[in-house]
Design a protein that fits this description.
Elements: E1 2-6, E2 11-23, E3 26-37, E4 41-52, E5 56-68, E6 71-79, E7 86-100, E8 103-110, E9 113-117, E10 120-124, E11 127-132, E12 135-145, E13 148-156, E14 163-172, H1 175-179, E15 186-197, E16 204-216, E17 219-231, E18 236-245, E19 248-258, E20 263-274, E21 287-302, E22 307-322, E23 328-339, E24 341-350, E25 356-366, E26 369-387, E27 395-410, E28 413-430
Antiparallel strand pairs: 1-2, 2-3, 3-4, 4-5, 5-6, 6-7, 7-8, 7-9, 8-11, 9-10, 10-12, 11-12, 12-13, 13-14, 14-15, 15-16, 16-17, 17-18, 18-19, 19-20, 20-21, 21-22, 22-23, 23-24, 24-25, 25-26, 26-27, 27-28
């Protein structure tokens, strides 16, 4: 930091450069500021990047302000200067008002502004925020893009009857991919509201959000309704989840989550839920082609770091392909969930030719990752392997066996062992 002050002209100049400023997971990189004061105070600052964790960042930020006669004018600008544009320019005017009842007050006027999100223009309409001591009033703050909009109005104060209302309309969930560096691959149209009360006392909120035509990883989920409220005495979120697919309610769930304790207690009932949705959480290195309909009940407990599941789901016309075997098996039977394990209890399965076998064992997992396999397949005759050199260049082919096959291992390190006779094999090769 360097600076100078000239008494005769009453000029103050300060220059500073800071390589990085951090607070929690917020980082400001290569920050510099120039401060000049004469008849008015001018502050011009810039930074290469403002990042929020690993997923959100603004590049090439400039914040220019000047202050005179109890008024501050501020311009906030950012631009990634890349082919896909993330750019913004927000104009703010702040006025400090004469104290009322010895309490300071000010108004923040957000002037017409806009920003680009992946080349898409969003508009910030003129709005005002009034602050006097502990009361904050937000008047008609609105951000929109064509039919999409987010709107906030209301009061935050010590009066527990005052509320801040946030409403959303036709917000595309594809914006999540545009905002983050991750390809979440989710779509749908969201609308609803969030009402926030008593932030200074016992904060309480109520939300009612609907998401229509929701898909995740190209799997249709349906129309989602999520009602959530904050229960101050128990310090927990109470939620109700409903998913409808056409005229059928495929999911009804209810329960609580306590953030302070990181404790989950949620019940989920399914009725002919498309099992293809499981493909969104199961690793394709282990399973592919999951299909069928699931009906049953599962209770979720534990924490966000370790979710435990207990219940049974009946799979109707269900099926899956074990990636390492490349055989699509089908079944009509119950899959059990016990704590951190998925249990197949002597399930009768069928290969594409109608041959049957018994599938038994379990998969232990950590939120559907770090899977440990301990399973077996036994049959007098069944298609056991249907791989090509593309699946495994050292061990591939098509084989029918009468055998008991053990499938064990962790994550991608899978061992397949067995004993029995090969009835038929086609193009089978084992290359060392």
């Amino acid at each position: 930091m360097i600076g100078s002050y000239t008494e005769i002209s009453n000029n103050l100049d300060i220059y500073t450069d800071i390589p990085e400023i951090s607070y929690g997971k917020v980082y400001l990189k290569n920050y510099s500021a120039a401060i000049h004061s004469n008849e008015k105070l001018e502050i011009n600052s810039r930074a290469d990047e403002l990042s929020f964790g690993n997923n959100y960042a603004l590049s090439n930020i400039q914040i220019n302000s000047d202050a005179i006669n109890n008024q501050i004018n501020t311009l906030i600008f950012w631009d990634n200067y890349e082919e896909r544009t993330y750019q913004g320019e927000i104009n703010i005017e702040t006025n400090f008002l004469p104290p009322q009842n010895k309490k300071p007050s000010l108004t923040i006027d957000i002037l017409p502004s806009n920003f680009l999100l992946a080349d898409t223009v969003w508009t910030i309409s003129p709005s005002q925020i009034k602050i006097d001591s502990t009361r904050i009033e937000i008047d008609d703050l609105s951000i929109s893009n064509k039919q999409q909009s987010i709107h906030a109005s209301g009061v935050i104060s010590h009066n527990n009857a005052d509320k801040l209302d946030i409403s959303i309309q036709n917000i595309s969930l594809e914006n999540i991919d545009l905002l983050t560096t991750k390809n979440i691959n989710i779509s749908g149209q969201a609308g609803g509201f969030v009402d926030i009360y008593d932030l200074y006392g016992q904060p309480y909120f109520l939300s009612d959000i609907d998401i229509n035509n929701t898909t995740y990883k190209e799997q249709l989920i349906g129309d989602i309704s999520l009602i959530t409220q904050w229960d101050a005495p128990s310090e927990a979120l109470q939620s109700e989840l409903i998913i409808n697919n056409d005229s059928l309610q495929t999911i009804y769930g209810y329960g609580i989550y306590s953030p302070g304790k990181d404790s989950l207690n949620f019940n989920l009932n399914t009725d002919h839920l498309p099992l293809s949705l499981l493909q969104t959480v199961l690793n394709e290195d282990s399973f592919q082609g999951i299909h069928g309909l699931g009906t049953g009940n599962v209770k979720f407990s534990g924490s966000s770091q370790k979710i435990l599941m207990d219940g049974d789901i009946y799979g109707e016309d269900a099926g899956l392909t074990m990636t390492y075997l490349q055989v699509p098996y089908t079944f009509n039977d119950t899959v059990k969930f016990r704590s951190d394990s998925i249990i197949f209890d002597n399930i009768t399965i069928y290969d594409p030719d109608g041959n049957s076998g018994i599938f038994d064992g379990s998969i232990r997992h950590d939120n559907f990752t770090n899977m440990d396999y301990d399973m077996s397949l036994s049959s007098p005759r069944i298609l056991a392997i249907n791989t090509t050199a593309r699946n495994n260049p050292k061990f591939f082919g098509k084989a029918y066996t009468n055998a008991t096959v053990q499938i064990t291992g962790h994550s991608r390190d899978i061992t397949i062992e067995g004993s029995g006779n090969i009835h038929e094999r086609y193009g089978f090769k084992h290359l060392s």
